[in-house]
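User: Need the bound-state model for arginine:
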Amino acid sequence: MPKKALMVKPDHFSVDYVINPHMEGNIGKVNKQMALKQWEAVRDAFSGTGLEMHVLDGVDGLPDMVFCANQSLPYINEDGDKEVVMSIMHSEHRKLEVAHIENWYVEQGYEIHHLNYKTISDFEGMGDALWHPGKRLLWGGYGFRSSLEAYEFITDTWKIPVIALKLSHPEFYHLDTCMCILNQDSVLIYPGAFTRKGLDLIHELFTNVIESDTYEAEKLFSCNATCPNGKDVIIQRGCTDTVKKLKDAGFNVTEVDTEEFLKSGGSVFCMKMLAW
Ligand code: ARG
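Assistant: Bound-state model below.
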């Protein structure tokens, strides 16, 4: 289980461009004061689950850096050695974020891996790559922000199998928008974002598959929830149906408001990086 959570202050967060369908119509519409309040509540919710919080300042000109699930994929091996693969952001607007996040990993004693820009066009870290708790297994979304070749590198480097899932619904452009791994046996998904093959794989590896309805998945980012410890789930407020299903399955649920961040196509999961 990860011990640390990294977050980036929303001091420079805004919607300045459109790189996913949720951002459309929202340029200049972020209420910064509200965003800060919401970000603080998300931070407190994570810290309430026992995570050690690390916070970086935002950077002027990098309005999406606050979504710090995207610039890296950290890993720890059996001996406790910490390594990280740094992302190649799909959009030009976000490429400069990666170096800032990399500095933090250097301070934390991680071995840093860079993808080969010549052979891999993009990879957006834990936006698309999700660890399966309790197994040496990675779920990897591809199609919008990450390419398959990135997972070949990860498999070769860490000798870890990757289950690649093709994403083809533009509203669900990252795997973390349609799949929230809750613990070793349980997952929350939006089935409409996956292929038949992908769904079969999910059902094969998880005994408990909780499904979100379209409204909550698309408008409230229900599947962008986070379960950092296998029992406590932090989720956007208003996901009534999903919350009921989570509680029925025995999870504790904390609801937070990430409305300002939804304008940019992100919510709870995207706003932090879980690491060791
Ligand atoms: N505006 C950001 C983008 O489109 C949102 C990123 C949300 N992150 C996530 N992991 N889904 O890149």
